[in-house]
Amino acid sequence: MKCPHCSVGVSLEFGKTVWAEKDVKETGMGYGLFYDHCPECAGLVVLFKRGYYKVEYTTRYENNYLEDITLEEIIYPKSVNRKVETEVPERYRKDFLEACAVLPISAKASAALSRRILQDILREHFKIKDSSLATEIEKFIALKDVPSYLSQAVDAIRNIGNFAAHPLKDTNTGEVVEVESGEAEWLLDVLESLFDFAFIQPNRLAERKKILNEKLKSLGKPTMKG
Ligand SMILES: [Zn+2]
After folding, report:
1. Alpha carbon of 85 to ligand 1 centroid (Å)
2. 220 vs 73, higher pLDDT
3. Which of 15, 51, 139, 209 satisfies CB 3.0 to 4.6 Å to 69 for a cystine?
4. Cα 110 to ligand 1 centre (Å)
5. Domain residue limits, the chain
6. What is the Å distance from ligand 1's center to 41 Cα?
7. More confident residue, 135 or 105
8. Over the stretch 157-170, which tens digit does the pLDDT of each residue have?
9. For 56-65, what is the mean pLDDT?
10. CA 225 – ligand 1 centroid, Å
11. What is the per-residue pLDDT for 79?
12. What's the first-to-final CA gap in the chain, in angstroms?
C-alpha cells in the first residue's frame, strides 16, 4: 500500500492491535483497531476492520482475532495523500483528486468516480467503446502495447469489484453501489498506473526525443522519425 502520509509504497503489517472485540449483537462478527508506523516516514496509520470474531485458547493465553475480513478502512490519517502529475489531462486529474478526497468518507462514492474515470480514459484516449465496462476492459487488455503488469491490474478490477454480483458497476459505471474490501483503493492505484502509461510516460519520451533531435540537428545529422 501507499503510505497515506508520505505516499511511498510500503508494506505495513498492522500487527499491533489496540483491541478486537465481539459485536454486541450475536452475529459472530467482531471489529478491531490495528495500527502500524510507516517505515519511511514513521507516520502512524490506524486501520479499522470488521470480520468474524474468533478466540483461540491455549493453556497460557487467550488470543482474540478477526477472520474473513468484510471491511477494512484506514481511519487515520483522514486524508488520502495522492498527487497527480500535470501531464494528466485536467478533467481526469480533477475527478481523480475528488475520488481520493471522498475515500475516507465514502468508499462507494470514491469507487464510482474511479470507475467512471477508467471508462472515460478507455473511451476517449484508447477509443474503446462497448456496452459494458467488463467488455471494454477485455478489449483494453488485448491491446498489444499494454505492459502485462498494467493489463493484469486493470483486469483485476473486475474480480476485486465482484462485477458478477454487482452488474451496475459494469453497465452503469458511475453508479454508487456497494464496494468490496479494498476495491476503492485498488481502483485509485490502477488509475495512477494508467495515468502513467497513457499520459506521463509518452509525454516524457516525446520530450526526450525532442532534446535528442535538437542535438542531432546541431551535429548536422538526420533526425529521428515517428
Ligand atoms: Zn510514510
Report:
1. 20
2. 220
3. 51
4. 22
5. 16-76, 90-211
6. 4
7. 135
8. 999 888 888 888 88
9. 83
10. 43
11. 60
12. 38
Distance from Cα 82 to the centre of ligand 1, integer Å: 12
The whole-chain average pLDDT of the chain stands at 89
Q: How far is the CA of 44 from the centre of ligand 1 (A)?
A: 8
**Per-residue pLDDT tens over the stretch 15-50:** 777 777 788 777 888 888 889 999 998 988 898 888
101, 79 Cβ separation under 8 angstroms: yes
Place of cell 477485455: 138
* SS3 per residue for the chain: CECCCCCCECCCCCCEEEEEEECCCCCCEEEEEEEEECCCCCCEEEEEEEEEEEEEECCCCEEEEEEEEEEEEEEECCCCCCCCCCCCCHHHHHHHHHHHHHCCCCHHHHHHHHHHHHHHHHHHCCCCCCCCHHHHHHHHHCCCCCCHHHHHHHHHHHHHCCCCCCHHHHHCCCCCCCCCCCHHHHHHHHHHHHHHHHHHHHHHHHHHHHHHHHHHHHCCCCCCCC
Q: Is the peptide bond before 77 cis (omega within 30 degrees of 0)?
A: yes
Q: Which residues contact 141 (CB under 8 A, 6 or more apart)?
A: 151, 152, 154, 155
User: 220: which 3 cell numbers?
Assistant: 548536422
Distance 39 CA to ligand 1 centre (A): 7
- Name the β-bridge partners of 54: 65
CA of 26 to the centre of ligand 1 (A): 38
Q: How far is the CA of 47 from the centre of ligand 1 (A)?
A: 15
Q: How far does the centroid of ligand 1 lie from the alpha carbon of residue 196, in Å?
A: 22
